[in-house]
Amino acid sequence: MTEAKTGTFVELDASDLPVCCPNRKAALWSSHPRVFLKVADNGEAHCPYCGAAYRIDPEKLAHAAH
Fold first, then answer.
1. For residues 21 and 48, is the Cβ–Cβ distance under 8 A?
2. Antiparallel, parallel or unpaired: β 53-56 and 9-12
3. Residue ranges covered by each domain of the chain
């Protein structure tokens, strides 16, 4: 996962699957209950707790499935 954000999205790659929030690099103090986010439908998802937005390129998703 690249911590660099594009707009308000955290950009993901296949190595970040499955996607969860807070992500594995988040500080303990900023934690909320871990939720797994479904990015397979449209390539992006938003955390229901903190609103963090995650996005993956659909081509990277397709590549991960093979």
1. no
2. parallel
3. 5-64
Cβ-contact 9, 55 below 8 angstroms = yes
Residues (pLDDT < 50) of the chain are 2-6
22: β partners? none
Residue type (1 letter), 56: I
Phi, psi of 61 (to 5 degrees): -65, -45
pLDDT of residue 37: 95
Q: What are phi and psi of 37, to 5 degrees?
A: -110, 135
Cα dihedral across residues 42, 60, 48, 33: positive or negative: positive
Q: What is the pTM of this model?
A: 0.72
Cα–Cα distance, 65 to 24 (Å, whole number): 22
